[in-house]
Amino acid sequence: MSDNRAENLFFEADQLIEENRIVDAKEMLIDLLAEYPDYGRAHNHLGWLYNLKFNNYPKAKKHLELAIKFAPDYHAAYSNYSYLLIDMNLNDEMITFGSKVLGSPVVDRSTIYNKMGQAYELKGDVLNAYKHYKLAVKETLNNKTLDTIYASVNRVKGKMSLMQRLKLINQ
Predict the structure, then answer these.
(1) I need a labelling partner for 111 at 20 to 30 A (CA). Which of 32, 79, 80, 81 fits?
(2) pLDDT tens per residue, range 48-85
(3) How many helices (DSSP H) and strands (DSSP E) are in the chain?
(4) At 71, which CATH number?
(5) Cα 86 versus chain centre, distance
(6) Alpha carbon separation from 111 to 29, 58, 114, 115, 131 (Å, rounded)
(7) Residue 26: which H helix or E strand, with range?
(8) How many domains does the chain have?
(9) 4, 39 in Cβ contact below 8 A?
(10) Following DSSP, what letter does each residue of 92-128 receive, concatenated?
């Protein structure tokens, strides 16, 4: 299969997703990957579908990991993988992953910091959660995302003890 043919099939699958023809898109992505197994963006879309539309976390994880491996410059794969790790309650893995990829110029740093904040919050580490949510605030340019992150900051502050809140003042 030529690179051009792979891109055309990928674009068609992407259009099917836009049209909410999820099963058709999944089949097209599977066919594309059967012929072109290292097409990372197709792995990303398939991983996203398995996570959000089919709730098949093992398949989603496999495909998103392949997406990052085969398309390390494709930013969406990092964000989708971070969402998946939180969905799977793999909080330690999310923190490790986030720490590893934050140096990459292609990742959405706001999303990674936000997901790291969620991982820390779910682990009960509200101070680290607060720190990472604040870092996410600094990295976003999207007002809707900013509102969501501020809601997380306020939620975490509400979970803090008085002593923890005093630590924030002294930082």
Answers:
(1) 32
(2) 999 999 999 999 999 999 999 999 999 999 999 999 99
(3) 10, 0
(4) 1.25.40.10
(5) 9
(6) 26, 22, 5, 6, 14
(7) helix 22-35
(8) 2
(9) no
(10) HHHHHHHHHHTT-TTS-HHHHHHHHHHHHHHTT-HHH
In a domain, 83, yes or no: no
Query: pLDDT tens-digit profile of 88-139?
Result: 999 999 999 999 999 999 999 999 999 999 999 999 999 999 999 999 999 9
- Which residues does 163 contact at the CB level (< 8 Å), separation at least 6? none
Structure tokens at 142: 């999207």
Q: Which domain holds residue 157?
A: 89-171
Question: Contact, 75 vs 108, CB < 8 A?
Answer: yes
Q: The tokens 């709730």 sit on which residue?
A: 55
The tokens describing 44, both together, are: 């990303």
Dihedral of the alpha carbons of 98, 51, 6, 77, in degrees to the nearest 10: -10
